[in-house]
Design goal:
Elements lengths: L15 H15 L4 E4 L3 H9 L8 H8 L5 E4 L10 H20 L6 H16 L18 H6 L21 H20 L21 E4 L11 E9 L5 E10 L2 E8 L3 E5 L2 H4 L1
Parallel strand pairs: 1-2
Antiparallel strand pairs: 3-4, 3-7, 4-5, 5-6
Helix pairs in contact: 1-2, 4-7, 5-7
Length: 277
């Protein structure tokens, strides 16, 4: 939860025993944890019963047991997957891609070794996503990723040399993994990463700016409380008839200047008198 990283474990079944083994593997690799958060899945509830926790729905009983180990287990209310937040989001996207891939490939064609290695590759992809926008500061060129926080390393694991396609699904196991990893990476890059940067566009028709309209200019270098206003002297419509740049005449310090600016840097204040008529 602190690093927004994910860890995927392959288990043989959805029973409590398999979950406890996966939990032990996670503890053995990552060390003790301070808090576990989960939904009310039957395998999680069964695991609590295996650990002699009778009142599963009561967080107090779970916490009293785990407090001896310095760990707490917090359950979300039933039928409230939206309370999962970040982990439901990441696992949900990963699961959607994997489900569509498995329908095409068929899980019966994958051995346990191939599936385990493939899940490790998938975890590496998800944990290499950027957490913050890319900085334009030359003194800070690195991109903060969950993997960076986990490993304290900025380098990522590069794929093996060679080309891997769908034909490799029927070859050696290590080539099967790389073929599946390439497919997942393509889907992850084209379906998820674009959602990190929203692209807006006009959904409704708006009138063009016209000569004589009064506008104010947007300028990030202006001082506080400085609002430069001007009048549009000329418009430059494109082939589609949309005005995307204009000449604006401004008066500042007893001098007049004309600037060519895009319409995105102007804010309409008053329509021209001819338009009002």
């Amino acid at each position: 939860m602190g690093t927004r990283a994910i860890h995927i474990e392959v288990i043989e079944s959805m029973d409590s025993s398999s979950f406890l083994n996966a939990l032990r593997r996670f503890f053995s690799i990552g060390g003790p944890v301070k808090q576990i958060r989960s939904d009310c899945g039957t395998n999680f509830i069964g695991a609590c019963r295996e650990l002699k926790m009778e009142a599963v729905q009561s967080n107090k009983e779970v916490q009293e047991y785990l407090n001896h180990k310095g760990c707490t287990w917090v359950f979300n209310p039933p039928h409230s997957s939206h309370m999962g937040g970040s982990w439901e989001r990441m696992i949900g996207i990963t699961r959607c891609i994997l489900d569509s891939m498995m329908l095409k490939v068929g899980s019966s064609k994958l051995t346990h070794e191939v599936l385990t290695t493939f899940m490790a590759e998938v975890s590496a992809f998800v944990n290499a996503r950027p957490l913050v926008p890319v900085s334009t500061d030359p003194d800070s060129p690195f991109i903060l990723m969950p993997a960076t926080l986990l490993t304290q390393k900025v380098a990522v694991v590069l794929p093996p040399q060679g080309e891997f396609d769908d034909k490799d699904l029927f070859k050696r196991q290590w080539r099967q993994v790389q073929s599946l990893a390439n497919t997942f990476w393509h889907r992850w890059r084209t379906e998820y990463l674009p959602t990190l940067q929203s692209r807006r566009k006009w959904q409704t028709e708006k009138p063009n700016l016209k000569e004589g309209d009064i506008v104010t200019l947007k300028d990030s270098q202006l001082k506080r409380n400085d609002w430069p206003m001007g009048i549009i002297m000329k418009t430059f419509p494109g082939r589609d008839g949309k005005v995307r740049k204009v000449d604006v005449k401004t008066a500042r310090e007893a001098s007049c200047n004309i600037f060519l600016c895009p319409v995105s840097e102007t804010v309409l204040l008053l329509l021209s008198p001819e338009t009002d008529k």
